[in-house]
Amino acid sequence: MEKTEIFAHKPQDLKEPLVVAGGLLMHDDKFLLLKRHPEKPYGHLWNLPAGKVDLFENPQEGAQREIHEETGIFIPLESLKPIHVFYLKRGTIYIQFHVFKTFFLEKPEITLKLDENTEALWTSFTEAFELPLLGGGHEILDYCVNRC
Q1: Which residue in 7, 93, 117, 126 has the most C-beta neighbors within 10 A?
Q2: Distant-in-sequence, close-in-space partners of 19: CB < 8 Å, separation ≥ 6
Q3: How far apart are CA 89 and CA 50, in angstroms?
Q4: Between the CA of residue 66 and those of 50, 74, 117, 140, 145, what are the distances in Å?
Q5: What are the pLDDT digits (tens) for 60-72?
Q6: Does domain 4-147 have CATH number 3.90.79.10?
Q7: What is the CA radius of gyration of the chain?
Q8: Which residue in 29, 22, 89 sits closest to 50, CA to CA?
Q9: Model pTM above 0.85
Q10: Where do runs of H (alpha helix) occur along 5-124?
Q11: 93 in Cβ contact with 3 (< 8 Å)
């Protein structure tokens, strides 16, 4: 797997990043992680529900759509609160990752898009750090633990 660099601030040489958005979906003291399909890039790794933002979407709309596509959970835009924008570099590709957060009073039903992800897991932050996460995942979760 390619090494992932993560930056606290926008890198100076950032030109045209791949814009990605996703969500930290919380219920009680747990949050949702998805396990990538083995035939997808970064297969078998766990990640927040997320994906590429389409051309005419803003990051919040992209997060809403991707979460719905990957989990079947529809979240109203006003319930997706911005957490942070992370900048990652994998090889020569820069990624601008917008993370939003929402809370559920009741655990929502999940309908996985099985050609994207094979498992869903409600986990604690402590348990998540033991999982094989997508590059940059440990740093992103660490940020969420300490600042969210």
Answers
A1: 117
A2: 52, 53, 59, 62, 95, 96, 98
A3: 17
A4: 6, 10, 12, 18, 23
A5: 999 999 999 999 9
A6: yes
A7: 14
A8: 22
A9: yes
A10: 59-71
A11: no
